[in-house]
């Protein structure tokens, strides 16, 4: 007996509620399908269905077997589809969501190479600082730097750690009567990202491992990291950023890292995508590409 075919028959009968309905769907006779399920029961040594003139009902063993049937058959379908699509050139429109800062500062480093390699993929970018509803907005892949993931229904693949650092412009530091240290830091204005729950609060860990929290006064707040970056470079105060946002400005001297031996809670660059039995070739291609790119540290070197 073809056990795989019998499992397919059993699932169809259960899903459609009768042998007759399954027979119409498959074009096979009621008798043939019934015989397949009976042979399956004989081979398993367990009754799977209670049969009456009115309806079918799963036995306890049938319920257990049905659950495993669904998993196995779905995995087989996914494997068949993946193997088929593996032979195809990734193509089509790929909707990619990134934050505004990531889109402006990071995509230029690797997206041109990806587009050149996969000429049949058309990228449609959605740049926003809010967490998108990927299913509602039909997003294929989302790249986010965050310390929390609000939607556990998404698959989250870690790509890279993201260090958070304190910075200020040389022009701001020159105006100070005393150098900045951990004791006087709280006296300085913090350029704050007002989408945070507590935008004026800093958490710092000193080299010894002790932790310190402080609430700093506000001079400028904004809902845009890029606007705060410009304010920091303009000398308006101290700011706390993911390093990738200010890495170039620190390297060329427009900003100076403060208290480099102290640490703030780090964040992570994630690739997020909806749960699925398989990934479309276009999504898999981009996911593998960015993972390979960020496998080597890119910031602070």
Automatic annotation (TrEMBL):
Source taxon at top rank: Bacteria
Pfam families tied to this protein: HTH_1, LysR_substrate
Could you list this entry's UniProt keywords, alphabetically sorted. Answer: DNA-binding, Transcription, Transcription regulation
What Gene3D superfamilies does the entry give?
3.40.190.290, Winged helix-like DNA-binding domain superfamily/Winged helix DNA-binding domain
Q: For the HTH lysR-type domain, which residue ranges apply?
A: 1-59
Task: Tell me one GO molecular function of this protein.
Answer: DNA binding
**InterPro entries linked to this entry:** LysR-type_TF_proteobact-type (IPR058163), LysR_HTH_N (IPR000847), LysR_subst-bd (IPR005119), WH-like_DNA-bd_sf (IPR036388), WH_DNA-bd_sf (IPR036390)
Give the matching PANTHER family.
HTH-TYPE TRANSCRIPTIONAL ACTIVATOR TTDR-RELATED, HTH-TYPE TRANSCRIPTIONAL REGULATOR
The entry's family comment says: Belongs to the LysR transcriptional regulatory family.
Q: What is this protein called?
A: LysR family transcriptional regulator
Organism, scientific name = Pseudomonas sp. Hg7Tf
């Amino acid at each position: 007996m073809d056990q795989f075919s019998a499992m397919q028959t059993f699932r169809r009968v259960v899903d459609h509620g009768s042998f007759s309905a399954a027979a119409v769907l498959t074009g096979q006779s009621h008798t043939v399908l019934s015989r397949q399920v009976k042979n399956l029961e004989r081979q398993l040594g367990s009754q799977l269905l209670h049969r009456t003139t009115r309806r079918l009902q799963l036995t306890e063993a049938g319920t257990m077997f049905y659950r495993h049937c669904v998993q196995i058959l779905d995995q087989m379908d996914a494997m068949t589809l993946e193997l088929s699509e593996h032979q195809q050139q990734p193509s089509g429109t790929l909707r990619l969501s990134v934050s505004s800062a990531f889109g402006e500062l990071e995509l230029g480093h690797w997206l041109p190479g990806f587009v050149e390699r996969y000429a049949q993929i058309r990228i449609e970018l959605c740049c926003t600082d809010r967490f998108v509803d990927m299913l509602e907005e039909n997003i294929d892949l989302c790249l986010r730097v965050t310390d929390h993931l609000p939607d556990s229904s998404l698959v989250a693949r870690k790509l890279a750690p993201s260090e958070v650092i304190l910075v200020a412009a040389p022009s701001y530091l020159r105006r100070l009567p005393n150098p900045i240290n951990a004791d006087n830091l709280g006296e300085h204005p913090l350029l704050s990202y007002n989408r945070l729950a507590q935008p004026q609060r800093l958490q710092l860990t000193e080299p010894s491992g002790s932790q310190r929290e402080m609430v700093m006064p506000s001079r400028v707040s904004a809902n845009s990291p890029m606007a705060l970056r410009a304010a920091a470079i303009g000398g308006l105060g101290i700011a706390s950023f993911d390093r990738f946002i200010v890495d170039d400005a620190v390297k060329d001297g427009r900003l100076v890292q403060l208290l480099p031996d102290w640490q703030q809670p780090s964040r992570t660059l994630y690739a997020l995508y909806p749960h699925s039995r398989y990934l479309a070739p276009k999504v898999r291609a981009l996911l593998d590409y960015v993972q390979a790119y960020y496998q080597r540290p890119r910031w602070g070197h």
